[in-house]
Amino acid sequence: MKTEHKNKHPIYRLLLTFGYLFVIGISVIYGSYLTMRYFTYSQTCFTTAQVQSDSRCLYILNGKVYNKGSRSKPHHSNPCGTDVTNIILSFHTQSPLKYLDPNYVGNICTNQPVATNTPQPPSPTPIQNSPTSTPAITSSTTCAKHHLGDANCDGIIDVTDYEMFRKEFTHTVNTVNADFDNDGLPTISDFETWRRGYINNL
User: Fold this and answer.
1) What is the per-residue pLDDT across 48-102, written as a single tens digit (0 to 9) for each?
2) Which residue among 8, 74, 88, 194 is least packed, with the fewest CB closer than 10 Å?
3) Largest CA distance in the chain
4) What does the alpha-carbon distance between residue 57 and residue 73 come to, in Å, rounded to a whole number?
C-alpha cells in the first residue's frame, strides 16, 4: 500500500506543475495584452470636438479620454462628451485599475487645432496626395515581407509599420494593411508578428 501511495506523488506533482505553468502563461498573455492596449491608446489623441461628436459615449478626465456608457444611456446621466474632472467620484481615481484603465481610449491632443482635419490646398494636387500612402498599400499582401510585419511594403519593418497597425487596431482608419496573418482584422497576433519582425530587423 505504501508503494502505491508513493507512485501517485510524481503524477500529482506533474499535474500541479502544469497547473502553475498554465496560470502563469495566461497571466503573461493577459498582461502583455493590457500593456500593448494601454501603449496603443496612449498614442491616440482626441480634440474636445472629436470627443463630443464621437459615436461612442466619451468623457474627459484629467486630459485623458474614457469610453463609458452609451449615447442612449450616458454614465450616471452625465452628458457624453463632457469633462468630468471636477465631478468624478473619488473612489474612481483611487482605484484606476478597476474603474478607469479598462475604459481608457486616448488622450486630449495638446494642440487642439488639428491641421490634418482641414484641407491644405489651393490647388487640387495636394488633395490628390492627401491620402498619403494608404491607397498604395492595396497590394500589400503580395509583398515579400508582409507576413513578417511590413505593413506598407517598403521592404523595411519599422515604426511606420507599427503606426499603421495602431491606426487600424484602434479603427482610426478603415484599412487592414497590418493584417499580417490574413484573418481579416488587425489583432494582438499581428502586433506580435510586427514586434518579432521589428526586433529581427534591428
Assistant:
1) 899 899 999 998 988 889 888 898 998 888 899 888 888 876 666 666 656 677 7
2) 8
3) 93
4) 9
